[in-house]
Amino acid sequence: MADTKYIYRGPMTGVSLSTGEGKERKARRVLLHDGQPVELPNDHPYVQRLVRLGRLVSPPPPATESAGNTQPAAPAEKPKNRSSSTVTSDTAVGARVTGKEPV
Question: Residue 14 belongs to what domain range?
Answer without folding.
Answer: 3-57
